[in-house]
TrEMBL record:
The keyword Cell membrane applies. It holds the Pfam family AA_permease_2. Coiled coil: none annotated. The keyword Cell membrane applies. InterPro entries: AA/rel_permease1, APC_superfamily. The chain crosses the membrane at residues 51-69, 132-153, 165-184, 204-221, 242-264, 294-316, 346-367, 373-397, 409-431, 443-467. Its main location: membrane. This is APC family permease. It is found in: Cell membrane. It comes from Streptomyces wedmorensis. The lineage of its organism: Bacteria, Bacillati, Actinomycetota, Actinomycetes, Kitasatosporales.
Length: 491
């Protein structure tokens, strides 16, 4: 058996994570408590009591894409993940844009939203309700949180994983406790299997919008794969953890959605899930009547640490993505710097923490209500790079699909179906975003979601042109050079 050195070819520390830690990292990056509280209301506004059906439908392309990620990671375990895989399949241009720019932009926008949410909840928990409603105060606290979590991420995966165990445990305990209490409350309706009927959704438009929202609620599990070079059995464990984490998320979300519908219904007033005033924070509205004032604070704490937990994972994953891009010559060499003691991409970690703070400040100045639009925008970006990566799996393995029934199914049929579903949701949603009424903000007749989502893709096109001029060697020989530098367990 080959003995692996303590460091990978990029200077990262090998063997930092096992299967359990990888699953915890994947679940934490999704921020279950935060994601369900800021998304379930929007889904209910679109499809009513068919929210569980939307959650189930949204999960299908996610699971199919997870199989694609697993197969690609088995072949090419590199912390650049989507960047490396799309470059190998489609070439340097699509790899840089769809595999690098798009996921990094989605992560950056998510970090700004996560920091804002965590800061607002923290101020509320401390009894500083006035400050929690003040944009400047929330932004200031959010920047401090970003600084603290950047310091943790910079220290290494073992420290980050230890923190995540505690934060994830609190989230899952709070969500399960809320669900049990909601179902047990007097007057709660009996859950109905008809809530899972996708055929009852009225039209493709609402269906596509609901599925796009649900992409956001599941998004983030792929962050665990960016740590593949620091995981034991890097070609096997990250892929297994990706599938396990998505299944755990499905069960948790369906349970909470059924419980919330049973207790609150879809009315447009009070605690009803159809009340637009509750859409951005469902659990904050439902927790007091379900759990009582004291335990409702525990739910608030769960959402607070959920957002902070996901923020920490974003810092971990984004820095490793740019580390790989820089190592392969597609970004400035500074992003390839690894801390000599902690063995982490120190420059990239600090860069993303700082960039998220700047973005948060800018968006807060532009509009106080960017959170809902940010969620919708992120869904568009997720559909773009998940769909492209799923198709990259099919294209990369195209000459080997007939080697076995397993190869045909897991490397061909399932990823192809998932990729097409993702890109269909992307196309429909991009069309819908042209309406200024889509989302909660607009600027000079253009919707805020359109500006954030489609605008960031257009900006990526210009960034790609600049990168071609700055790194011509990568764009000439990127496919071959990436293949030559791949890190495998036998290195």
């Amino acid at each position: 058996m080959t003995t692996l050195p303590d460091e990978t070819g990029k200077g990262l520390r090998r063997g930092s994570l096992g299967l359990l830690a990888s699953v915890a990292l994947g679940l934490s990056s999704v921020a279950p408590a935060y994601s369900i509280t800021v998304t379930l209301g929007f889904v209910a506004l679109v499809v009513g009591d068919l929210a569980p059906a939307a959650l189930l439908l949204g999960f299908v392309p996610i699971l199919l894409t997870a199989f694609a990620f697993r197969e690609l990671n088995r072949e090419m375990p590199d912390c650049g993940t989507t960047f490396v895989w799309n470059t190998r399949a489609f070439g340097p241009g699509p790899g840089w844009l769809a595999g690098g720019w798009v996921p990094q932009t989605a992560t950056l926008v998510a970090m700004a939203a996560l920091a804002q949410v965590s800061a607002g909840y923290l101020l509320g928990l401390l009894g500083l309700d006035g400050a929690a409603g003040n944009t400047a105060a929330v932004t200031a606290v959010a920047v401090l949180l970003l600084a603290a979590l950047t310091a943790v991420a910079r220290r290494g995966l073992r420290v980050a994983a230890g923190v995540q165990y505690v934060l994830l445990g609190l989230q899952l305990l709070a969500l399960v406790g809320f669900g049990v209490a909601a179902l047990a409350r007097p007057g709660a309706a009996t859950p109905s299997l008809s809530w899972l009927n996708p055929l009852a959704v009225d039209g493709f438009g609402p269906f596509a919008q609901a599925v796009l929202l649900c992409l956001y609620i599941y998004w983030g599990w792929d962050a665990l794969i960016t740590t593949n070079e620091e995981t034991r059995d890097s070609d096997r464990v990250p892929g297994q953890a990706a599938v396990v984490s998505t299944l755990v998320l499905l069960g948790t979300y369906l349970f909470v959605a059924f419980a919330a519908l049973s207790f609150a219904g879809t009315g447009t007033t009070g605690t009803g899930l159809g009340n637009p005033d509750n859409a951005t924070d469902v659990l904050a509205s439902l927790a007091p009547p379900v759990l009582g004032p004291a335990l409702a604070k525990v739910m608030e704490l769960a959402v607070c640490v959920s957002a902070a937990s996901a923020l920490l994972t974003c810092l971990v994953s984004s820095a490793r993505g740019t580390l790989s891009m820089a190592t392969h010559g597609a970004l400035p060499a500074a992003f390839a710097r690894v801390h000599p003691r902690h063995r982490t991409p120190a420059f990239g970690t600090v860069f993303f923490g700082s960039a998220a703070a700047v973005l948060l400040a800018v968006l807060s100045l532009v509009s106080r209500h960017f959170l809902g639009d940010a969620i919708l925008c992120i869904g568009l970006l997720i559909a773009c790079y998940y769909g492209t990566t799923a198709l990259a799996c099919v294209w990369y393995f195209r000459k080997r699909l007939l080697e076995s029934p397993r190869a045909l199914l897991l490397r061909g049929v399932l990823p192809l179906t998932g990729g097409l579903l993702m890109l269909a949701a992307f196309a429909r949603s991009a069309y819908d975003m042209g309406d200024p009424a889509y989302g909660s903000t607009s600027f000079h007749g253009v919707g805020g979601v359109f500006l954030l989502g489609v605008g960031s893709l257009a900006a990526g096109g210009f960034a790609l042109l600049a990168a071609r001029a700055r790194y011509p060697r990568f764009f000439r020989t990127g496919r071959g050079s990436v293949a030559a530098c791949l890190v495998t367990a036998e290195d």
